[in-house]
# Entry
Amino acid sequence: MASLARIRSVVGRSVSRVGCGLTQFGRREASTRATSSGKEFSHYEVRVRADKGGCETLSETMMCFGAQSVTLSDLHRGTEREEEIFSGNEKWNQGEKWKDTLVVGYFAEREACTTCIASCEEVLGEMLEYKVEEVFVETHDWENVVLESYQPIQISDALWIVPTTVEPPEKDAVSLMLSPGIAFGNGGHPTTKLCLRWLQSSIRGGEEVCDYGAGTGILAIGALKFGAKAAVATDIEETAVRITEVNARQNGIREGDLESLLVSSTITGRIPGGVESFDTIVANILMGPLLELKECFLESLKSGGKLGMSGILATQADEVARAYSDELEDVKIETLDEWAIVTGTKK
Ligand SMILES: C[S@@+](CC[C@H](N)C(=O)[O-])C[C@H]1O[C@@H](n2cnc3c(N)ncnc32)[C@H](O)[C@@H]1O
# Structure
């Protein structure tokens, strides 16, 4: 079984000037230089072998004298001599350690390594045998690695969310294009999926839709692509309002079909647009605001209009459904993973 290394990141602990009984660990060596082709410098490691009684004191002393972090691990890890001792448990805290421990200090600069060791030697009153290693990691073209990680997300049959960096996977499907890395999510969250599936199945064509808590505006854009006549997207974040406008243009939504509005989180009155002005309201926010906004949603919805509420856990769905049950009919709950959408039609 692997022995777990422990990362220490506490700085500036005081230590007593006691010898730590370090076992000899080779001679002082020059640092090991790795080839830099295809790799980039990461950090320096100072590797010291210590025995059971000395490893704690040594690691604390290294932390006191400049190590950014220190790990302890079984020196015989991966060999027949490996001891099954797990760090961090009660026994560990009571002093149970490996017989031979490898203490590794991490540093950003070479000079800090030697200064730290000199200070440890002074404090501990003995010479340490140590090794400094310069650690390199593979160089990555991070921009491309990240871009490659953006892939289309299938929401349902013939409905995809597609990053603008890739081609839509199905020519005849509805593709909702989102810029990769944009704030407010990539649209793949289960609640967004639940809302999009509901909109796809309930929009008949020609509806006035409100996407309350629009984020990227994906639900409003989706509704328009499914055939709605016009959409109002609201959010309490200015960035979301702007992003919704950008995403609308990116998806070829005609100017004037989607209105992106900033609303206050404290206003629970009417949605800008008027009384009984929406055929469909979709809100993917949290349970608290869904309950607070009940009057606002119901007043803004036409009689016979549809309401879809998500952003809630499956365990919260009954409470939301109950809160709206007097004013809605045909109330349904759909779930995906641990998330839910509550839908209904205004009586
Ligand atoms: C979970 S995101 C949903 C984004 C998008 N509609 C979707 O389905 O992917 C919730 C959004 O609602 C906004 N929001 C939270 N509380 C709100 C409130 N009381 N009124 C309007 N927007 C709110 C947040 O700023 C956020 O952009």
Remarks:
- The two ends are 63 Å apart (CA to CA).
- The longest helix spans residues 110-124.
- The longest strand covers residues 39-51.
